[in-house]
Amino acid sequence: MPKSVSISKQLASIKALKKGSDLEKAMATIALIFRNSSDPDGKVGRATAKNLLQTQFRNFTEREETKPKYQDILSELDEHTENKLDFEDFVILLLSLAIVSDLLQNILSAEVTK
Length: 114
What we know:
flat
């Protein structure tokens, strides 16, 4: 699918997701964003990965730069030997940053209202 097609339209075109759960759609969204940003080999460079973090994962990474765990995770990205991430590495990066973020802690501790 061309990269200029919106993620929501790409999701809508996937028949298996018509009745998909929110979690399935979230994973598909991550996969589509990655694919749309990847090179022909299916990988993203460090600069692209950092750009995706700033533009697509901003609420999880804002104001986290001074945390040692955040810095450790990003330094691993800088030390990645291939200078490119495949999808698995990218998802691990996202999960690692989400786990140390204040936003996730706020989400997990928020009271559910009905």
